[in-house]
Design brief:
about 170 residues; about 45% helix; 8 helices; mainly alpha
Length: about 170
């Protein structure tokens, strides 16, 4: 599988949409990390309310879809998906990748992104199937919020591509 990574949102847009309940980088982690997070915050989030990414409590009401979505830090850590270089996980990796960092974890993280919301990603396919069946773009806010966490927002262009691909498989 070719590793293509093309989120349609930037890390800033994800945070502006209230993703992660405003507490992605605000959750106290166990690891001591020698990394200048202020540089990352300035690069991506300068001028934004720090409560959008450094809050200490999850606030579902600030999420774009107003619901709680995703597992907490302890769950992801328990799954072994956190790496020392990015102890906060996926979104931290993406922020650093977007800043130009490349490393040994890139392939794993990009493959995870593709599986989740890439062209053949299970949740991208799922949401477009629901939009098609129900004729409603507001369907399944939990899935849409989760996709947002991964830097993907559903859109008409991708929906049309999904529709064409679906129809070509039927023939």
């Amino acid at each position: 599988m070719k590793l293509e990574f093309y989120p349609n949102l930037t890390p800033r847009q994800v945070i502006e949409a209230g993703a992660f309940g405003g507490c992605y980088f605000g959750y106290a982690i166990e690891e001591y990390v020698e990394y200048d997070y202020e540089t990352l915050f300035k690069y991506h989030f300068e001028g934004l309310d720090r409560e959008l990414y450094l809050g200490e409590k999850y606030k579902a009401k600030i999420n774009k879809f107003g619901i709680r979505s995703g597992k907490d830090y302890r769950f992801w850590k328990g799954m072994g998906w956190m790496h020392d270089q990015d102890p906060y996980g996926w979104f931290e990796w993406w922020c650093k990748y977007d800043m130009g960092r490349r490393g040994e974890d890139d392939g794993r993280q990009i493959a995870r992104w593709q599986d989740f919301c890439g062209i053949k990603g299970r949740w991208r396919i799922n949401i477009y199937g629901q939009v098609h069946t129900k004729g409603d773009w507001d369907v399944s806010p939990r899935i849409q919020q989760s996709l947002l966490h991964w830097g993907y927002e559903i859109n008409n262009c991708d929906f049309l591509a999904w529709t064409i691909n679906k129809e070509s498989k039927i023939k």
